[in-house]
Amino acid sequence: MTEAWHRPGPPPTVDAGSREIVLLQGCVVEPTVFSTTREQFTLELDPGARARVSMNLDDDTSSQRLDYGQRVEIEARIRAPHNYNNPGSFDYALYLAREKIFWTATVARHSTARVLPGRCGSRFWAFIFALRTAAVDRIEKLYPGLNQADTFSTGMMEAVLIGEKSKLEKVWTENFRRTGTYHTLVIAGFHVTILAGCLLFLLRICALDEIPALFLTAAAAWLYALVCGLNAPVVRAASGFTLYAIARFFFRRGRVLNLLAAVALIYLLWDPGQLFDAAFQLSFLCVAAIGAFVAPLLQATSIPLALALKNPGVIEADPHMEPRSAQFRVELRLISETLQSITQIPKRWLLPPLAICLRLVLFLYELAVISTVMQIALALPMAEYFHRISFSGFSSNLIVTPLMGALVPVGFLAIFAGWHWTAALASAMLNSSARVVNWHAQMEPNWRLADPPLWLALAFVASLIVLALLMHRKFLRWPALAAVLGLFILLIWQPFPAPTRGHILELTVIDVGQGDSLFILFPDGAKMLIDGGGLLSYGKRTRRPGLDTGEDVVSPYLWSRGIRRLDIVVATHDHEDHTGGLPSILENFRPRELWVGANPQLALLERAARLHIPIVRRHAEPAFDFSGARIAILSPPPGFAPAKSGNNDSLAFSIHFGSRSFLLTGDMEKPMEGRLLSEDADLHADVLKVGHHGSKTSTIQPFLDAVSPSIALISDGFENSFGHPHKDVLARLQNHHTAVLRTDLDGLITVRTDGQHLTMDTMHWSNGASLFGPAWNPDLIQ
């Protein structure tokens, strides 16, 4: 019932087309944030109906700062968010709807927002956003952006301290992801714990009693959550700390698992949708692992020794400690006496530094235990959501976590005081962490994981639960631990073949927006990917796009099918909307061969050579057998090498299986279609992947007559600016009584044949949801 209560209702509508410029008036409810190429703010058009507005910055457009509560009027193109409709894809539209954002708007070129008289919003939120803006301004003053180091420090500090990711470059964070240290960059309970600990320490040394200090710290944690935009992990951490303060007020002991259960119960009643959110699951499991595994393990090993190191020279305290602690104190004094006899240094001078050194050793041991337990306990969600488990995370976290933990209070001291030396110290910590991460990333194998089988996921979860229940059983916990480790190895190794439908030829058109990416599963099991999508760019791009189509769209679909290795990757031609995602595909799936046609992309060839992937240059040639089917390369012709790359470079071929055939044309246009017609090539196919996204420059009438397809597949972007597919092409297909399926309307499309019959399926016809919920991609959240 509570889930139905919080589920967003039907979205509001605007009577405007995606290419139509409309006049919008509203209230700024999230002030302007700036990046290198654009500025962005959130505009509330009506209560509960918001638009995320972007203004592209170029040489002719000056930046404009808008504050919370200003009423503005803009000229903009407005459109509803649209997801990549593939199984396991991140539901970006639902994420925005939960934030009451139902449109994205782009301000018209050479236009700015006109500020209207009057104010809107609330004074409370105006104060909160003023604090956030002041913090961002102070960071930008401390790192003025005079060089690349300043740009890096500004973007990273704003993300780490305030949660402002507009200046964050994906290339800066990639190695943090690879080494399992990305959690130190995301504002979550880690940050709240450190800040709360520092503030509580300051309040206590100022002689404030425990209970008032706890409640003041809890209030500060909530203020921090508000300034960070009520980031869900921070809210959960602030809630947990508040519950702990309440428990201490009633003289109750704050137990980690009890607090965790209380926070989960609150979320279950208030917003149960959060239970299926990846961020919630990761933070929940992290704390649960600490309470269920780390705390008992440390209690049995290091904690008694750490307690023994407090005032080790006070012999009178020994009888009041448990035997193991008292024994350790006696041994410590014996060691100091031995060192005294060797060095002639008084024992009272030797004992404190010895205790400090041992405390440091215990601290490193505790970090190692926490890191190891986290790597194992979070293996399943890391495999499901990020498709990786970091082996270097065991050691990199030992260095990066303390460094980034120290950076948080130092960074906030720099913000509050404006001292450049503290800013320089925070920057040094950040750069040291980056160097450690980069060094570990060089050793980290690019070990990517497919979605595990359901039975393995359930068995791994069950083994963790059993181990948690048996942690205090001295003999029973060892078999449970062995089961966890065995299933953990299976989860990483995954020696299971990807599930297939035996002796079937399958063609799947993956929804990559305005681009192409086709997956083919051959009758005998070979797997081929044709192109990897990509984002088209115009002019001089000063910043890499935050979305990598190969990594963030195509790879998750393949992993959702249990695929870890490809046999063939085909790069049809050197256009970004086809090959932009292929570098990541080569890295993630290490294909046995890369097929290219005319004018292949040099950077892609270099990437393949670095990964030791054989490159096969294909051109028109006689048909050959391949994995239970027959392939005929139709284009480009032998010796075709134009000076400039273009659509007619496309590697086009047909696949025959039984009495059925598929024709895949890339972006081939009229000249090459005419050449094939003049050469009297066998072009008939039951399924045609329409050339150049349905552009009027392809699929001419004689070519379509020769192919005479029963099914036409078009890969194009929703409401794309090119007008694809063209109405004339659609009319010609309709006149041929051809069934037309389009990724912009139907999402992912699959056609299968057993050599005689054809079956079709699309994302909109079937339930493509993942068993574990929607995939989570933080790069899509801005």
Plain-language structure description:
- It contains 26 helices and 21 strands.
- By secondary structure, the chain is α/β, with parallel strands linked by helices.
- Among the domains are: 1-121, Nucleic acid-binding proteins (OB fold (Dihydrolipoamide Acetyltransferase, E2P), Beta Barrel), CATH 2.40.50; 301-385, no CATH class; 459-493, no CATH class; 505-536 and 548-767, Ribonuclease Z/Hydroxyacylglutathione hydrolase-like (Metallo-beta-lactamase, Chain A, 4-Layer Sandwich), CATH 3.60.15.10.
- β20 and β21 form a beta hairpin.
Question: Could you give the topology of this structure?
Answer:
Blueprint: H1 2-6, E1 21-34, E2 38-46, E3 49-56, E4 70-79, H2 92-98, E5 101-107, E6 114-119, H3 123-142, H4 148-162, H5 170-178, H6 189-205, H7 210-227, H8 232-249, H9 256-270, H10 278-300, H11 302-308, H12 323-343, H13 347-377, H14 379-386, H15 393-417, H16 420-443, H17 454-469, H18 477-493, E7 505-509, E8 518-521, E9 527-530, H19 549-560, E10 568-571, H20 576-579, H21 582-589, E11 593-596, H22 602-610, E12 615-617, E13 624-626, E14 629-635, E15 652-657, E16 660-664, H23 670-678, E17 687-689, H24 701-707, E18 711-714, H25 727-735, E19 739-742, H26 743-746, E20 749-753, E21 758-762
Parallel strand pairs: 3-5, 9-10, 10-11, 11-12, 16-17, 17-18, 18-19
Antiparallel strand pairs: 1-2, 1-4, 2-3, 4-5, 4-6, 7-8, 7-20, 8-9, 13-14, 14-15, 15-16, 20-21
Helix pairs in contact: 3-4, 5-16, 6-7, 6-8, 6-15, 7-8, 8-9, 9-10, 10-13, 11-12, 12-13, 13-15, 15-16, 17-18, 19-21
